[in-house]
């Protein structure tokens, strides 16, 4: 085994190692044996990396406890000793922007110096969030042209692998890549984050310094998954779930079924905890026509039920199919399922919109009676097995089918309220649990020297906008504690999505945007990037990521680098009533104001009764004057307060006004 690989150390095992002359082969072998399972040098420090300029930066890794390690970059060097756990950290610098440099670490690896080449000093940005940050460059407008032009040797890319953990990890095991057309396409979902790339490209073009982009995101995830346990614990809403996460960590060696059985016994639970067993007696279960939703099924207790329900059916398999591989197919299961054949799990999917296709090995397929059990978990709204009846079937490799549509047995199990209290079943591939993404995808980066962070997330928290006003500031504060204040933090507001409003409403989507805006307005060194004008009614992932990256860059160029560029759309400086009209005095109007799109449903006004009506806007210099024939004494105003505004007010820099409700 190569000595640079991860080795268990005698110190960890509690062994005592007697000192020997360092020149003997035995001493070399013994030193290798006291190395640890962690890398001698953290994986953030690879060839082609970017280190933060103009500040003292930490460089760290692991070796034998007590051992002296020296870090050298150019003529500067600094030494540190490993602590009792073998972790060492040396701070070196500051260095101005530029390079390339060579990073050399001696003393950590008994095999010899660790050398990293082509290191640059510049500005490093963490780029995080959910799917709109994850969305790769191959998925955006003009993708091929953008990829072909992505030759920026002074932009470096680092993608943190997706992962979850019940406790903070130390390392991520990836490497820096030089930005070029080949490397920009590497990544699970269409290549490197398009938003991060377009942001970094603009910074590199304007600042003429190297830019390092650390992309760490996961589509569909909640903000609370990206916050540490200590920080999230300051919000009472998450106390119960944090307790479940802690218990899951402490009980990892206990089979989950045993944990659940113990918990259910304490709850005096009456129902079906496990409906998967092949020989289970389901004769007293209810009948349900399938496919079909729960709410209108006529089955007692299913209307408005949110939680787990078990489906079961006995299927007669003809002798001709016995011993042959089959595929279970279903088009819609709302929301999540775990499916069993003769008591053995054959597949599981989280997400109501995903097609199910699970292989049933021929060894499990017998002639005559076979059982199928489906554990369906509905998070909210309608639940059940839906879709077209013809899509719900078993299928052989040669095209024979066995229809599954018809009458099934069903029995409810735990409700969502009960599930929230039950032991947490940790799934490494399930990121929708508080703290698990912080532990696996943020903690391993600490305390790498960075300039700031950009954050594109909120869709998965949209149903809880009030909570988000408290959660997002905690996340910002948490990351600043980890990476060092002030850590400029830029928030991308939710893009337009879903059908436009026919009448003034106040849905969760604009409320979540407002929560994002409140964080930017109240937390120092934060900024807001408005994107409702580049949304898509039918696609939650708008393809115009160029403007998202550009607007992020403009904000930081103005606020962090002192460049005289416009970074905000028009904002309301003051407002006053003028008879039956409302007059808005605006700031950030450089180059003049203009409307684009349908403005007839852009503004709404109300009197003290808070009955809202659309208002007609008129630009008068640096003002917008609003009028509605239905509101004689306007007091309140909303702008772009809908899921998908059909128009926008712009300034001369082509930046849209941020949504508001006053």
Question: Secondary-structure map with pairings?
Answer:
Elements: H1 10-13, H2 25-33, E1 50-52, E2 57-62, E3 68-73, E4 76-81, E5 87-92, E6 98-106, E7 114-129, H3 131-134, H4 143-148, E8 152-159, E9 177-179, H5 194-207, E10 211-217, H6 229-232, H7 239-250, H8 256-267, E11 286-290, E12 292-293, E13 307-317, E14 326-330, E15 332-334, E16 336-341, E17 344-350, E18 356-360, E19 368-378, E20 384-386, E21 393-396, E22 401-403, E23 406-415, H9 416-419, H10 436-442, E24 452-456, H11 465-483, E25 489-492, H12 508-522, E26 526-529, H13 545-559, E27 571-578, E28 581-587, E29 594-597, E30 603-606, E31 613-620, E32 623-627, E33 636-639, E34 647-650, E35 660-661
Helix pairs in contact: 5-13, 11-12
Within CATH, the superfamily of the largest domain carries the name SGNH hydrolase
How big is the Rg?
Answer: 29 Å
Relative strand content: 25-35%
Profile the largest sheet: 11 strands, mixed
Work out the count of structural domains: 4
Explain what you see:
By secondary structure, the protein is α+β, with helices and mostly antiparallel strands. It folds into four domains: 10-121, Immunoglobulin-like (Sandwich); 122-237 and 433-559, Rossmann fold (3-Layer(aba) Sandwich), CATH 3.40.50.1110; 264-416, Jelly Rolls (Sandwich); 571-661, Sandwich (Immunoglobulin-like). The protein is built from 13 helices and 35 strands. Helix 12 (508-522) links the parallel strand 25 and strand 26 (526-529).
